């Protein structure tokens, strides 16, 4: 095993990472690219739980904007995350990484129910766990689900691998001179109203002293660098 700083991690990945051209749907080639990155971390001896969003298939706010009830829109989103989880499991298995999908909503025909101790046991046996269907409840984002799973399995860190390279003082697309933070406290991140991670997730991590690393998934070797403890993206911590 390599001398990694973090031994057990929860990695939150947006559903858009699996999308094809136009940012919609599941592209098997993109799923494989993500799986290769996860496998590289797994090969370092790190125990990995993945939480993936569903934005490439469904965005609840779009349904709500057309008059749909928020609870119904969120339930559709939870099912979208299961579809992404199954695609990513397939990609990981084809790379030789034993993977289990666990869902917060019971659907025994295609995945295990999420059971905390079973998830930990899978990790101890060297399997990747994909935790799907959010928390199983509407009104909670997949960011919050990732934070919750990180507490439950006693992870060392919550990693949010996204398409931006950290937290900025302002939108860098609007203000090219916006400052990128290398480090922030949880409370400062909340006060900044950081848009790249849900405030409920930050609050949960703050209350439980869980560090968060936020960085660009598509930078070369970014996941490996993060688990090795290199300075990358933005570290949000107590």
- What's the β-strand tally? 11
Based on secondary structure, the structural category is alpha/beta
Residue-averaged pLDDT: 94
Shape: globular
Give me the Rg, rounded: 17 Å
Structure commentary:
- With 238 residues, the protein is of the alpha/beta class.
- It has one domain (8-237): 3-Layer(aba) Sandwich (Carbamate kinase).
- It is 37% helix and 19% strand.
- It has 8 helices and 11 strands.
- The chain has helices at residues 28-42, 60-65, 70-94, 116-124, 142-152, 186-191, 199-207, 222-228, and strands at 8-13, 47-52, 99-103, 112-113, 128-132, 157-162, 167-168, 180-181, 183-185, 212-216, 234-237.
- The strands form 2 sheets. A 9-stranded mixed beta sheet has the order 4-3-5-2-1-6-10-11-9, with helices on both faces. Strands 7-8 form a two-stranded antiparallel ribbon.
- Helix 1 links the parallel strand 1 and strand 2.
- Helix 5 (142-152) runs parallel beside helix 7.
- The longest helix has 25 residues, at 70-94.
- It starts with 7 loop residues before the first strand and ends with a strand.
């Amino acid at each position: 095993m390599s001398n990694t700083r973090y031994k057990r991690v929860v990695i939150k990945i947006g559903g858009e990472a699996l999308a094809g051209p136009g940012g919609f749907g599941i592209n098997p080639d993109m799923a494989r690219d993500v799986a290769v990155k996860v496998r590289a971390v797994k090969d370092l001896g790190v125990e990995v739980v993945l939480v993936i969003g569903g934005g490439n298939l469904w965005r609840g706010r779009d349904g709500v904007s057309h008059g749909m009830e928020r609870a119904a829109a969120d339930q559709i989103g939870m099912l979208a995350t299961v579809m992404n989880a199954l695609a990513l499991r397939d990609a990981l298995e084809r790379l030789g990484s034993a993977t289990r999908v666990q869902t917060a909503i019971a659907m025994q025909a295609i995945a295990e129910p999420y059971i905390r101790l079973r998830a930990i046991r899978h990790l101890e046996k060297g399997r990747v766990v994909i935790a799907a269907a959010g928390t199983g409840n509407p009104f909670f984002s997949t960011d919050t689900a990732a934070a919750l799973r990180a507490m439950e399995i006693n992870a060392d860190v919550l990693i949010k691998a996204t398409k931006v390279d950290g937290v900025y003082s302002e939108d860098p697309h609007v203000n090219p001179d916006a400052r990128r933070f290398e480090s922030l406290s949880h409370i400062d991140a909340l006060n900044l109203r950081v848009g790249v991670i849900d405030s409920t997730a930050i609050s949960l991590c703050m209350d439980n002293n869980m560090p968060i690393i936020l960085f660009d998934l598509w930078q070369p070797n970014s996941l490996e660098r993060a688990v090795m403890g290199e300075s990358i993206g933005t570290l949000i911590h107590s």
